[in-house]
């Protein structure tokens, strides 16, 4: 009996030591930055956070930049009326969001690019199967607000809106654009799910320097 316990102790000690010294380190690749940036004279690049303008959600609350601070945020722009392709994208997002968990640390905003009534917004919101309380369908009373957010999120002219409505923009806790994912590509949807989890952990990770 004593020999067995001694053997187990020998096997466990190296594992415990490894966990203690590797705690907080991460061997996955860090997610880069995208979007608008400012280049200084010495060559350093500073990426700018996305300017989140006030939005009205289907739950009739106002979502502001301050209310999103500290959360990983997904932005998905859609047209109204929502065509079948749009509804398919919502269903695709739904299937993956249910697997993430930690709902208090991230948020999804579906933002309408067109004029839409509060009733229509509520109807779209009620059709989703996702159980979390961190998914909001949103609109703005000012078209200029939404198109400006779109332009900055995709770093593209406003006349290319239709080309990006199948894409989810991923923001970190400081509202910097970190990645974009195409909902029509299955591998990218899985990458989106992993990226959300990684950004949630990022503030607590001591990244291991590559040699």
Helical coverage, percent range: 25-40%
**Largest sheet report:** 7 strands, mixed
Spatial strand sequence of the major β-sheet: 5-4-8-7-6-9-10
* Strand/helix succession: HEEEEEHEHEHEHEEHE
Shape field: globular
Terminal CA distance reads 45 Å
**Mean pLDDT reading:** 79
Strand content: 15-25%
Question: What's the SSE blueprint?
Answer:
Blueprint: H1 2-22, E1 25-26, E2 37-39, E3 45-47, E4 55-57, E5 62-63, H2 65-68, E6 72-78, H3 84-97, E7 106-112, H4 118-126, E8 135-139, H5 143-154, E9 167-171, E10 177-182, H6 186-201, E11 206-207
Parallel strand pairs: 1-11, 6-7, 7-8
Antiparallel strand pairs: 2-3, 4-5, 4-8, 6-9, 9-10
How would you explain this protein's 3D organization?
The chain has 211 residues and is α/β, with parallel strands linked by helices. The chain contains six helices and eleven strands. It has a seven-stranded mixed beta sheet with strand order 5-4-8-7-6-9-10, with helices on both faces. α3 links the parallel β6 and β7. It starts with a helix and ends with a strand. About 11% of the residues have low confidence.
């Amino acid at each position: 009996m004593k020999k067995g316990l001694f053997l187990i102790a020998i096997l466990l000690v190296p594992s415990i030591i490894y966990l203690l010294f590797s705690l907080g380190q991460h061997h996955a690749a860090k997610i880069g930055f995208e979007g608008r940036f400012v280049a200084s004279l010495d060559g350093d690049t500073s990426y700018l956070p996305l300017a989140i303008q006030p939005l009205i959600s289907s739950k009739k609350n106002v979502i502001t930049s301050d209310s999103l601070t500290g959360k990983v945020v997904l932005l998905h722009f859609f047209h109204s009326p929502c065509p079948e392709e749009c509804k398919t994208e919502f269903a695709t997002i739904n299937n993956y969001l249910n697997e993430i968990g930690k709902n208090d640390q991230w948020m999804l905003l579906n933002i309408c690019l067109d004029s839409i009534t509060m009733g229509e917004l509520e109807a779209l919101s009620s059709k989703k199967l996702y159980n979390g309380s961190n998914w909001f369908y949103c609109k703005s009373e000012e078209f200029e607000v939404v198109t400006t957010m779109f332009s900055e999120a995709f770093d593209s002219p406003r006349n290319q809106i239709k080309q990006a409505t199948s894409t989810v923009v991923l923001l970190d806790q400081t509202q910097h654009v970190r990645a974009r994912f195409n909902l029509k590509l299955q591998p990218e949807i899985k990458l989106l799910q992993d990226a959300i989890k990684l950004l949630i952990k990022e503030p607590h990770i001591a990244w291991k320097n590559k040699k």
